[in-house]
Amino acid sequence: MLCVGVDIVSIERIEAFAKRFKTRGLRRFLSDSEISLVKTPSNIAGFFAAKEACAKALKCGIGKELGFHDILLSKSTKGAPLLQLTSEKLDYFKVQDLSLSISHDGGFAIAVVAVSLQS
């Protein structure tokens, strides 16, 4: 079964959050390795949207079943965003494959996640 999730975030809102709470705030939803990848507020917003879109694709949202730190983001050698779940959550949700796309424009970051689940 294929499931899709999408999320859109105001870059300005994420930038204000990052300025106010700095790295301590970013650690609420990003790991240290993810923080090392973000260079701009639009990157941070894109990563936030990606994690929210993943949770929506899995039909659970961020909460008891799935936390921000269960969703792992990285980049390919070409700079494309990559998405993975912890092995525990891959098994829990019966995930076969994940795909992520992030875009930024007009003060917003949007992410789309497609998840292929075992039948």
Structure report:
This protein has a single domain, classed as 4'-phosphopantetheinyl transferase domain (Ribosomal Protein L22, Chain A). It has 4 helices and 5 strands; from the N terminus they run βαααββαββ. The protein has helices at 11-26, 32-37, 41-57, 87-93; strands spanning 2-10, 71-75, 81-85, 95-105, 108-117. A 3-stranded antiparallel beta sheet has the order 1-5-4. Strands 2-3 form a two-stranded antiparallel ribbon. It is globular. The termini are close together. The mean pLDDT is 97. Transfers the 4'-phosphopantetheine moiety from coenzyme A to a Ser of acyl-carrier-protein. One of its GO terms (molecular function) is holo-[acyl-carrier-protein] synthase activity.
Query: By CATH's scheme, which homologous superfamily applies?
Result: 4'-phosphopantetheinyl transferase domain
Helix content: 25-40%
Report the sheet-strand fraction: 25-35%
* CATH architecture assignment name: Alpha-Beta Complex
Number of helices: 4
**Helix/strand-derived class?**
alpha+beta
Number of strands: 5
CATH class: Alpha Beta
**Rg estimate, integer Å:** 14 Å
Alpha carbon gap, first and last residue: 6 Å
Assign the CATH topology. Answer: Ribosomal Protein L22, Chain A
How would a crystallographer describe the biggest sheet? 3 strands, antiparallel
Mean pLDDT: 97
Order of helices and strands: EHHHEEHEE
Summed up, the domain count is 1
